[in-house]
Hints:
Blueprint lengths: L2 E2 L5 E6 L6 E6 L6 E2 L7 E6 L5 E6 L6 E6 L5 E3 L7 E6 L5 E7 L2 E7 L5 E6 L3 E7 L5 E8 L2 E8 L5 E2 L13
Antiparallel strand pairs: 1-2, 2-3, 3-4, 5-6, 6-7, 7-8, 9-10, 10-11, 11-12, 13-14, 14-15, 15-16
Amino acid sequence: QPAWRPDGQRVAFQSFRDGNYHIWSVAADGTGLTQHTFGPYDDREPDWTTDGRQLVFSSDRSGNYDLWRVDLRTGAVAQMTTDPADDYNPAVHSSGRIAFVSEREAGRGIWVRNTSGSEELYAGVRGRVSAPSWRPDGGAVSYTAMGFGETSLMVVESGQPPRAISDSGQDIFPFRA
Length: 177
């Protein structure tokens, strides 16, 4: 689950080096390997904030999966979502909005956390979804939909119904496009 820092100088990733997933990063040339999260938690699926100073990730630190962020200068970790359902697979857009997958009672599917901190259902989806990824202009989110023995690469534009952009029968992996 690698993610490049916006300036292309580092890549963040999840690693299972001590029996738990933690967030790490390394310089583009392979130097400067740095661990950013610690403890008996499952920290995974990192993405960089637009300024490259924080990493957003999913973690079970609160008892279920929520979105968290770590300040790379101080190491401070802060919880971003608090719904009792699982929130995971964050994808940060250059505007600061964050798309993520949620299994919330209010609607399972792709949610967006706005820069104000408000959260809204972007695309309600039946079945399992993963790996949201923003279109550069922020007007659409792609994701992987899994169900009934088939996977599809989907895209949903703001205010429109989701549509498949992969052909039926293709082997689509649940990673960001």
